[in-house]
Write a structure and sequence with these properties.
This protein is α/β, with parallel strands linked by helices and 372 residues long. The protein has two domains: 223 residues, TIM Barrel (Alpha-Beta Barrel); 111 residues, Lyase, Ornithine Decarboxylase, Chain A, domain 1. The strands form three sheets. It has a nine-stranded mixed sheet. Strands 2, 3, 4, 5, 6, 7, 8, 9 and 10 form a nine-stranded parallel sheet that branches. Strands 13-14 form a two-stranded antiparallel ribbon. The longest helix is centred in the middle third of the chain and has 20 residues. 37% of the residues are buried.
């Protein structure tokens, strides 16, 4: 049976490294230690949101952030009592009601968000806890940084919403220092305007994993850590973080194919000689040979991927897996649920263990997660 294995000691190492680095940045302006907000969206970056969150709690993390209503409620249903921040703002009344009922800190970033939250608060006769989101150039959630008068007017009319924090999100902190600094400056100016208008900004946070590591001066009161915990970064790994998660499977069939025999979809590979193969029940649905690179690099990198795709069309893939600690080349295209490996001249049997290096985020949530 396929399973995603999470190495507990390596994960603990990453958490401790990040906590040490956070401690080095010192204290905020109020003398408080830097707060770590653990982002556990996308099924805990593939590690299993409930198991992963509880592991983080055991290591001393007590503030979490999610991206969907379902993620937030799932944590509450599984006994997580710590603070949870909903990073996506919403003006859908039913969603706000569910969040408030489950004591989730909401995000407000528009007049509509405030209007609906006020309606829910009035209906339930409660004060709603919220973080204020500022759009400093991401183009997603939040009050646009330059529309300060409109934002101030909306915030001053609030009666039942308590702002516990104010934040923004960097779009290219993994490589563009100039734009990252511009976003940071925009954020600080908005915070200053809030203070000038006697609006409490609360906890300030803007750093994601990459900005946390690269720009200590931008730490403010808190940082949001996601990909750094699992050791999968889009830039140089300065902290010696270890990549977390690998897929474990087993050989289900072996056989010998004759010379000139096609393997896999589209006939992209043909044996040049008699070849012994192993069939492994793992494929793209299990995250095999999938990456997020194309979403996280510069234009020049994207051009390189286009060139690589063209070249790959005319040449064989060079993907390897480990079977009994032996490197075995994948033959043909990776299928939805299967891969074929060359085991010629290797002592490999049905049932032998197979290890795939994969990104846990791409592993189907139905696959078992095992913490070892």
């Amino acid at each position: 049976m396929n399973r995603l294995v999470i190495q507990k000691e390596d994960l603990r190492h990453n958490i401790e490294q990040i906590k040490k680095y956070a401690t080095k940045s010192g204290q905020d302006d109020n003398g408080n230690p830097l707060k770590i907000i653990a982002v556990v969206k996308a099924n805990g970056y593939g590690l299993g949101i409930v198991e992963y969150t509880k592991f983080l709690i055991d290591i001393g993390i007590d503030f979490f952030a999610v991206s969907t209503v379902q993620e937030a409620i799932l944590l509450r249903q599984n006994g997580v009592k710590e603070k949870i921040l909903m990073l996506s703002s919403t003006a859908i009344k039913e969603d706000v009601e569910k969040l408030v009922e489950n004591n989730i800190i909401i995000t407000i970033g528009s007049q509509n968000d405030v209007k609906i939250a006020e309606e829910v608060a009035s209906k339930k006769n409660v004060k709603i806890k919220a973080h204020l989101k500022i759009d400093t150039g991401f183009g997603r959630y939040g009050f646009i940084y330059s529309n300060r008068e409109e934002m101030i007017q909306v915030l001053k009319e609030m009666k039942n919403i308590e702002i516990e924090g104010t934040y923004s999100h960097f779009s290219v902190s993994f490589f563009d220092e100039k734009y990252t600094k511009l976003q940071f400056e925009r954020f600080l100016k908005v915070v200053e305007v809030l203070k000038m208008n006697d609006i409490q900004a609360g906890m300030l946070h803007i750093c994601n994993s990459s900005a946390f590591i690269k720009y200590p001066i931008m730490h403010l009161n808190a940082v949001r850590i996601g990909s750094a915990f699992v050791g999968r970064l889009s830039f140089q790994n300065y902290l010696g973080l270890k990549k977390i998660g690998y897929m474990e499977s087993a050989v289900t069939e072996t056989k010998t194919l004759p010379k000139g025999f096609n393997i896999g979809y589209s006939n992209t590979f043909k044996t040049k000689k008699e070849t012994k193969i192993a069939v492994i029940p793992c494929g793209s649905m299990d995250g095999i040979n999938l990456t997020i690179d194309r979403d996280t690099f510069r234009i020049v990198d994207k051009l390189r991927y286009v060139v690589r795709d063209v070249k790959d069309f005319f040449k064989k893939q060079n993907i390897y897996v480990k079977i009994n600690n032996q490197n075995c080349k994948v033959l043909g295209r990776v299928g939805t649920y299967h891969v074929i490996c060359d085991i010629t001249d290797k002592e490999i049997q049905i049932g032998d263990k197979v290890i795939f290096n994969i990104n846990p985020m791409f592993v189907d949530s139905g696959i078992e997660r095992e913490y070892r």
